[in-house]
Amino acid sequence: MMLRSYRPPMLAAITMQGPVAVGGAGPGALSGALATAGGGSAEAKAKAGGAADGAVGAGGGGGGGKGKSEPEDRILISEVEVVGCDGELKSIAKQALTTRPNFAYTLEEVKADVRRVFATGWFSEVSPDAEDTRDGVKLRIRVKPNEEVRSLTAAGASLLPTSVIQEAFEGMPGRTLNLGSLQKAIARLDAWYHDRGIMGMVSDYTFEGGQLQLQCAEAVVGSVTLRFLDAASGQPKAKTRTRPHIITRHLTTKPGQVYNLRGIRRDINAVYSTGLFEDVNVVTREAADSTEAAPKVDLVLDLVERKTGGLSAGGGLSAAGSGEGAWPGLIGSFSYNERNLFGLNQRLSVSAEIGQVDKLFRLQHTDPWVNSDPHRTSRTVQVMNNRTSGNSIHGKAESDGDDGGGAGGGVLLGRLQGGVEWQRPLSSGWSGTLAASCQRTRCMDERGRPITHDMYHAPITFSADNNDTALIAAVTTSYSDPHDVDTHAVLGLEQALPLRREWLHYTRLKLRLDKALRLGPYLGLFLRGRAGAVVGDLPPYEAFPIGGTNSVRGYAEGGVGSGRHSVEAGAELRAPLPVQPLVATAFFDFGSDLGSGQAVIGDPAGVRGKPGSGYGFGGGVRMDSPVGPVRLEYAWNARGEGRFHVGLGYG
């Protein structure tokens, strides 16, 4: 016995097309058997002959048979017997029959019974046989059971795992083949392809001599070509800015691989994420050498380039612009950016920011994928000259009031630094960074004059000169939850290398943890932790400042203390407000220098009467923006003093 199923070509129809017709008796088999049954009464013969004539007339319209509109004659069935099988299969066939002895049935009702027996799936052939007796017609249903499945093979299944095939056909080897179970198993294999976006299916199968052979068809990618389109006309253009290999290196779909819709979507997102294109689309075409047995598709990547460079200017807020840390200062900015330098997707930026206190000038070049290496390493080279306030550590004590500005009333830190940084992904959500930089830090008063001591006559540099120099190597490992932007972790280690005797020599370790917990459909709990330690040469301005908008709220910037060691923790409840997109917050913060404030040169925290540890609590509102969350909060500290905080970005 041989069973064979043919399925439509995959490129025309991916899903399974209807049940497979295998074997069985033709529509006229029972009619002919009943019409020619010998012996028995004349009445039975007449009924049989009339039924046969009616069947012929209805099917072909010829002869002298009865028309369709007349009721079909009934045949008295005296006995029903199933032959050709025993045991369980015979019971299954009998249970499928509705024909019962000593009842009259039409020819169509008997044929429907035959179809029901075949529909059980256990038989390759089902045919009726009739014998005329004195009591009526004896109906025999002759069946031929399917063979036992002795082996199972699958050809052409390069991606379909053996375990999936075994699971789909579990229980079938060693038993009689059931066509219904076979179709369900094939449907499961087709569903496996479909669920994973793979253009594949079981295109054919044969069953002969107990050997069940599946033929799988998996469409293979023939070629991948790029086509640049004009943004206005949509027509192909010859002159392009982006070099082809910059695009193809983002494609995981290669010629010869099985076509995978999920992989295509990932490739589209990867190319689009470069920021070089307004539109990215993939057009699929059947390859010229594609066949039903070996389907093949060609891919055309349509690309519309966008403008990647330009000048910009603007203004905003700087959270570090106020020495007290409650209200940010104003800041103006100017920048030039090019995101596709030399057509290599390299980025060049020149920026300047000038605020009430802070100033920044930066030149930066980034290659997001150095030499297309398999680890996707990026490199950033940067030269920066900035000026920031040092008042979080060297500002006035709160007891001295706020009106003693001018020379000696504050400390400015000028940093000139240059360095290079390499970064690469490590695994899902994890990335690693290796950096080296050289920086010179200069201390100045509010008029820009070099100083070596603050207003309390405490030294503010380690070298006792008005500047310190450090060569720093840094390693950082970070994790960001791809499904939650509020969950991440950062561990960083810095080592200052004393290549010259007067250069700084220290080791700094920093840890940051953020975790988001959902307490219900609307309420969320956000936990954060910070810790740090420095061993070795520590200029006072490099101590850990504790307190402020992004630290312990309720205090000014650095109002809790500053030390060689620090630990901070905070918890914040968030719930959406009826006015979207505002979110209400309630928080509690804690921070401590772990008693290390006195270990800093000049003890700047102790001189200013800072407690060294403290907590704050309060509430506020926040709103998401393109540059991060904007926060307006009010907090009370451990002394019961309250203050407003305005934050921009993530703390």
TrEMBL record:
<feature type="domain" description="Bacterial surface antigen (D15)">
    <location>
        <begin position="340"/>
        <end position="649"/>
    </location>
</feature>
<feature type="domain" description="POTRA">
    <location>
        <begin position="241"/>
        <end position="306"/>
    </location>
</feature>
<dbReference type="InterPro" id="IPR010827">
    <property type="entry name" value="BamA/TamA_POTRA"/>
</dbReference>
<feature type="domain" description="POTRA">
    <location>
        <begin position="77"/>
        <end position="145"/>
    </location>
</feature>
<dbReference type="InterPro" id="IPR039910">
    <property type="entry name" value="D15-like"/>
</dbReference>
<feature type="region of interest" description="Disordered">
    <location>
        <begin position="51"/>
        <end position="72"/>
    </location>
</feature>
<dbReference type="GO" id="GO:0009707">
    <property type="term" value="C:chloroplast outer membrane"/>
</dbReference>
<protein>
    <recommendedName>
        <fullName>Bacterial surface antigen (D15) domain-containing protein</fullName>
    </recommendedName>
</protein>
<dbReference type="Pfam" id="PF01103">
    <property type="entry name" value="Omp85"/>
</dbReference>
<feature type="region of interest" description="Disordered">
    <location>
        <begin position="387"/>
        <end position="410"/>
    </location>
</feature>
<keyword id="KW-0472">Membrane</keyword>
<keyword id="KW-1002">Plastid outer membrane</keyword>
<dbReference type="InterPro" id="IPR000184">
    <property type="entry name" value="Bac_surfAg_D15"/>
</dbReference>
<feature type="compositionally biased region" description="Gly residues">
    <location>
        <begin position="56"/>
        <end position="66"/>
    </location>
</feature>
<dbReference type="Pfam" id="PF07244">
    <property type="entry name" value="POTRA"/>
</dbReference>
<keyword id="KW-0934">Plastid</keyword>
<dbReference type="GO" id="GO:0016020">
    <property type="term" value="C:membrane"/>
</dbReference>
